[in-house]
Amino acid sequence: MADVRRLKQNRATIKGQMTQINNTVDENTSVAEAKVKSTKIESLWEAFQEVQKKIDDARLERIEVAADEEVLPTAEQKAERQIFENTYFEAATKIQMVIDTAQAANQVQAQVARAEPQNEDGRRGRGERRMEVKLPTLKLPEFSGNYNEWLLFKDAFTSLIHENDTLTEIQKYQYLRSSVTGEAFQVIGGLATTAANYENAWDLLLNNYEHPRLLINTHLNQLLDFPAVSKDKPATMRQLIVHIRTHLKALETLELPKSWEEETKKDKENWPTLENFLTFLNEQVRTLEIIDKTKGKSEASKTPAGKKQERKVALATTSQEGCVLCSKNHQLYRCPDFLQLSSADRLKEVKAKKLCMNCLSKGHFSAACKSSACRRCQKKHNTLLHPEQEEKTATDKKSEEDASKKAVVMHGTQETLQDTEESSSVINLGRKPTSCVVLSTARVIVHDVNGGQHKCRALLDAGSQSNLITQELVDRLRLKCKRRDEVISGINRSQTNVSKTVGVKIRSMNADYEVAIECLVLPAITERLPQVKINTKLICLPEGLSLADPDFHTPGTVDILIGAGLFWQLICKDYIQRPKGIPRLQRTLLGWIVGGELLDASSETPRSFCGLITNAQLQAQLERFWKQEETLEKRSLTQEEIECERQFHESVKRDETGRFIVTLPKKPGVKLGDPGNQALQQLYSLERRFRGDPALKNAYVQFMEDYETQGHMSLMGPGPDTSTKVEQSYILPHHPVIKPDSTTTKYVCMYVCRLLHFPVGFTRRFYL
User: Fold this and answer.
1) 10 Å Cβ neighbour count for 478?
2) Name one Pfam family in it (predicted).
3) Is 585 helix (H, G, I), strand (E, B) or coil?
């Protein structure tokens, strides 16, 4: 058993050496090293065969280790042998390829050396030099049809393949076909793989991509379309520097023409040939490609049917035919005979002539028409074909609701290039379709006091001078606020006092942009936005667009308002202009935002929100300053005011405690009601209370006797039937008040003045 184990260990050692040699042989291996390793693997092969034979013999002879369960079965023995053989053959193949490649290179160098002339002294030129260092294999660059890659591909392919005399034409063509992909492969893909077609294929690529003007324009656009730079990230600044230098170096290798007109000017003195015509078409293709590349990427890819492009095509294909109704030299929508017809008769004429109901032209129908729809009902027909009955009904109904509103002028003309001089106008009071305004929102990440991340919703408002944040978000982030008294002013000069401010760090969802801002803290910024859920099918969002707020169409709470101070820093130059009634898409550093008017958004009537916010603190302080400096005008006093001044000066005095005492002025002729009945009821209630509390009665009697002794009260006199009755008297009820904690007077008398009867509509202040 010990011998078998030793044999297996030897076999494992041999397999490891063979595997190591196989892994170290590659295209960088020198010829000498390859020959040494070739000899080594031959010796390892013989050693493995010897060891494996001994293991097989030990099993067949059933020696003492035959019953050992570590002896491999026949199937596993075959597997071990197969694995080693595969490794051996793979290593031997690699070594032989290295040797064959070196021999082929030596043969090529020998042929070149024989072809070179000798110098006068009998020595050979450059062909005699030998490469003493093994260089890595050069990989040919690939070209997909992108103009930015053309110069690099052309220079590399020309140096390595096109000008290499050791290669045959068919070899060059094979290299060329394997190096081009995509649009570039389509240029030469139709040519058969023959030696004669190599030059044709190379000329086709040169004719399609060797355009200095187009290459210059491409690099200029790339130079101007620099990436966004963050001032606190050096990596983005370094990228900008590399971006600028790369394209400037590329422009230095190209000759910039000083006059584009001279570059495109044609020779008009000679009759054009077929080749001139093809050259002209080729120049037009180049010009259109330059124009397409100057447009924004988003507009070119998302809105291929832009208005500008349509208008150029319309100018090139304008028909010289006259009016289809009267055959005169004008368009149908300018025809006097056509305008005099009713809308129903106009519709009949259009159908009879088989014209487009939208633009009143031939060659297509309204379903495929690109012109704008009716300006009154937004349906797919011309404004001149709008039903008059519906127009009249809408006008009468609107006039009954508000006769003071003015009529709106609606232009019933076709929106094409031909309508550039004049347009017919129709007076109509139309109904505006249901619409709402989509405000731009974004999802951002904010950091709490511990560095944790929280997602929140931000409203982007270019009409706000300040950044705002809700108190609820500040509490959730546990941020420390600073004291700051400010006043923010909104719509209709409404003002809101703010007492706190806080610093917040926000970051985009894709982590490409981060900025710190100062926000004013408010209980709430606005209502849930949008007020109603928006149907995204009406907006027709392009696929693959990274929205800043994927839930912009769903009502939600606004946590942060980003004002104009940061708003314009977030805006990028890319945007997607949509048709009227569909919100615009704008790219920002936070992602693509959606904003604008949306027609037929909902049947509900949404409430409008305007985020105009200004800081009114400075204005208020200035107003306080000049108001304090103003001199008040002295006005004349009335007779009552003069009497009050006189009584004040005559009666004002100070008692021993320093308090001021003054007599209140009273108006003459005051007459009060008679509270006698209520005062009598108050007296009866006081007597019932005394019967239940004798101690209170004794204290009350003693207090009143002292009150009379001190002269604070006296007997009024005989009854009302006597002649001694005063001219006017009033009964003032009272009741005792107990003060147990008092050390001097535990009982006092409280007079009830509320029982004085005043006439209806008058108060005590009326008599003062």
Assistant:
1) 10
2) DUF1759
3) strand
Q: Which is more confidently placed, 134 or 219?
A: 219
pLDDT class for 561, splitting at 50, 70, 90?
very high
What is the pairing mode between strands 653-654 and 453-460? Answer: unpaired
d(CA 445, CA 510): 10
Higher pLDDT, 406 or 573: 573
For residue 750, give its domain range: 675-719+728-766
460 and 373 in a single domain? The answer is: no
Q: Residue 182: is its pLDDT beyond 60?
A: yes
Cβ neighbours for 703, distance < 8 A, ≥ 6 positions apart: 736, 747, 748, 749
Does 549 lie in the same domain as 486? yes
- Looking at the DSSP bridge assignments, the partners of residue 503 are 518
User: Residues near 419 by Cβ (< 8 Å), separated by ≥ 6?
Assistant: 331, 333, 413
Q: Are 443 and 453 in contact (CB under 8 A)?
A: no
471 C-beta neighbours (distance < 10 Å), count: 14
Residue 266 lies inside a defined structural domain of this protein: no
495, containing H or E segment: strand 495-508
Q: Which amino acid is at 232?
A: D
- Are 371 and 467 members of one domain? no
Decide which of 577, 601, 625 is a domain's last residue. Answer: 601
Write phi, then psi, for 321 (nearest 5 degrees). Answer: -70, 155
Q: Which of 86, 108, 130 is the last residue of a domain?
A: 108
The DSSP line for 404-421 is TSPPEEEE----STT-SS
Contact between residue 410 and residue 372 where contact means Cβ atoms under 8 Å apart: no
Q: What is the pTM of this model?
A: 0.30
Give me the mean pLDDT over the 575-604 stretch. 80
Percent of the chain past pLDDT 70, that is, above it, reads 66
Instruction: Determine the pLDDT at residue 406.
Output: 34
Note whether 460 and 597 are same-domain residues: yes
For strands 453-460 and 560-562, give the pairing: parallel
pLDDT of residue 501: 92
Expressed in angstroms, the distance from the first to the final Cα of the chain is 130
Is 611 part of any domain?
A: no
Residues 557, 481, single domain; the answer is yes
Q: Is residue 483 part of a domain?
A: yes
* Three-state SS at 381: coil
Looking at the structure, tell me whether residues 202 and 222 fall in a common domain. Answer: no
Beta bridge partners of residue 599, listed in sequence order: 435
H helices present in 304-439, as ranges: 307-316, 336-340, 343-353, 388-401
CA-based angle 730:731:736, to the nearest 5?
Answer: 145
**What are the CA-CA distances from residue 56 to residues 63, 73, 88 (Å)?**
11, 10, 20
The owner of tokens 């005099």 is: 340
Tell me if 682 is assigned to some domain: yes
538 and 600 in contact (C-beta within 8 Å)?
yes
CA 569 to chain CA centroid, nearest Å? 12
| Residues 472, 588 within the same domain | yes
Instruction: Give the mean pLDDT of 259-284.
Output: 60
DSSP secondary structure letters along 622-633: HHHHHHHHSPPP
Question: Is the bond leading into 530 cis (omega within 30 degrees of zero)?
Answer: yes
In angstroms, the CA 151 to CA 129 distance is 31
Compute the CA torsion angle 165, 170, 171, 177 (nearest 10 deg): 120
Give the DSSP per-residue string, 430-486. PPPPPEEEEPPEEEEEEE-TTS-EEEEEEEE-TTBSSEEEEHHHHHHHTPPPEEEEE
Angle at 589 between CA 559 and CA 228, to 5 degrees: 155
Asked if residue 578 and residue 514 are part of one domain, the reply reads yes
Q: Six-digit token pair at 242?
A: 């590399």
Burial of 268 (0-12, 13-18, 19+ CB in 10 A): exposed
How many folded domains does the chain comprise?
6
Query: Taking each helix axis from N to C terminus, what angle separates 274-294 and 212-224, rounded to the nearest 10 degrees?
Result: 0
Whether 310 and 369 have beta carbons less than 8 Å apart is answered as no
- CATH number at 542 reads 2.40.70.10
Which residue, 198, 191, 181, 199, is CA-closest to 143?
A: 181
For residue 349, the one-letter residue type is E
